[in-house]
Amino acid sequence: MSLQTDTIQVTGVRCERCVMRLGSSLRGLDGLEAANANLMGQVTLAWDDERLARADILAALRRAGFEPAPVLE
After folding, report:
1. Strand order of the sheet with strand 67-68?
2. Cα dihedral: 44, 22, 63, 10 (round 10)
3. Are 62 and 12 within 8 A, CB to CB?
4. What's the CA gap between 70 and 58, in Å, rounded?
5. How far, in Å, CA of 35 to CA of 26, rounded?
6. Residue 69 in contact with residue 10, Cβ under 8 Å?
7. Which residues contact 20 (CB under 8 A, 6 or more apart)?
8. Which one-letter DSSP state was computed for residue 23?
9. Phi-psi bin for 61: left (phi > 0), alpha (psi -120 to 50), beta?
10. By three-state DSSP, how is residue 56 classified?
11. Which residues, including other chains, have CB under 8 Å from residue 56's CB and lie 6 or more apart?
């Protein structure tokens, strides 16, 4: 198992219900070990990258209406 961690900033989080909806969008993803979201739109994730790709996590967030903020380099 190769555990990856990341914190992703997403748009669309306005209230506690949004945080719950965000959590529901990630529930059931095979390989997701932990997810924690807050009202600031920060989602801290830990996943097994042998079973789940980061792109699949981002796709699940988008399907639920949350858009990951662009990564600033």
Report:
1. 32-37, 42-48, 3-11, 67-68
2. -50
3. no
4. 12
5. 8
6. yes
7. none
8. H
9. alpha
10. helix
11. 29
CB atoms within 10 A of CB 25: 20
Note the pTM of the prediction, 2 decimals: 0.87
| HSE-CB of 47 using CA atoms within 13 angstroms | 24
Structure tokens at 26: 């990630």
The 10s digit of each residue's pLDDT in 7-65 is: 999 999 999 999 999 999 999 999 999 999 999 999 999 999 999 999 999 999 999 99
CA 48 to chain centre: 14
DSSP helix/strand/coil, 59: helix
Look-up: residue for tokens 């992703």? Answer: 8
Contact 10, 67 (CB under 8 A): yes
